[in-house]
Amino acid sequence: QSNFSIPQIFVTSPSLSLSKPRKMKALYSTTITVATSVNFQLLHLDNFLSPLPHQLYPFPRSASPSLQNLKFSSCPVGIRIRPIIRASSSSSMASSTTETKPFSVLFVCLGNICRSPAAEGVFRDLVKKRGLDSKFHIDSAGTINYHEGNPADPRMRAAASRRGIEITSTSRPIRSSDFRDFDLILAMDKSNRADILAALERWKQRENLPPDADKKVKLMCSYCKKHNETEVPDPYYGGQQGFEKVLDLLEDACESLLDSVLAETESGRT
């Protein structure tokens, strides 16, 4: 248990301002408020038998965050203190406010039913295997809305499943907010990239988007290390081998992508 100190406590009633505690004699139940560096904690005070000064009884310098078994060396006879709200540890509050924002990646192809959902599935699988789920926000989209609301192509899902990769995404078109919400937008081919940048220019005419949003857009194959291809080909009109080729490229690129993001994140902390 972490220790924390509470500077003072004072007596109030519902009709009194918390900022103006007063002396009062109580023959009934009232409320005692504990001022802490974290927030206000409420205790219930029963059976007062004597007047109470507004500068009351300091907590011990070390106190349990649960405020159980409170003891006051100068507490008057007849006062019984019962906590009704638990205190929060200041250390846990601090850690929650300093958590790093997840790195967000959006994969984009034409219809968001073959290549980009496969890229999303491959990258999710890699991130999960390394235990980094909470560090990433991953999604995919298309440059057109023709397949909006549909699951990924069954041929793509079957090919990925044979490699132990699950594809669960639903097709959606890219939207202007993606340029605010994502740190990196990866296009499967040069035509996709051109369409993404053209859409960005249109949206910039009527929305306030990051001035450097275009720098977020990159080609997926720019991360490949084992393959020389510059684009991920669309397998939609081809045979099964086309889907396998897509997965080969995506596994190569996603492995390098993850290593690159982790390296940049680590260097940013030092």
Automatic annotation (TrEMBL):
InterPro entries linked to this entry: LMW-PTP (IPR052995), Ptyr_pPase (IPR023485), Ptyr_pPase_sf (IPR036196), Tyr_phospatase_low_mol_wt (IPR017867)
A Pfam family per the record: LMWPc
Keywords: Hydrolase, Protein phosphatase
EC number(s) given by UniProt: 3.1.3.2
Active site: C109 (nucleophile), R115, D234 (proton donor)
Protein name: acid phosphatase
EC category: hydrolase
Taxonomy, superkingdom: Eukaryota
GO molecular function, one term: protein tyrosine phosphatase activity
Record lineage: Eukaryota, Viridiplantae, Streptophyta, Embryophyta, Tracheophyta
Sequence ranges assigned to domain Phosphotyrosine protein phosphatase I in this UniProt record: 103-260
Source species of the chain: Opuntia streptacantha (Prickly pear cactus)
Family: Belongs to the low molecular weight phosphotyrosine protein phosphatase family.
Gene3D superfamilies: 3.40.50.2300
Keyword Cell membrane: no
Parts of the chain that traverse the membrane: none
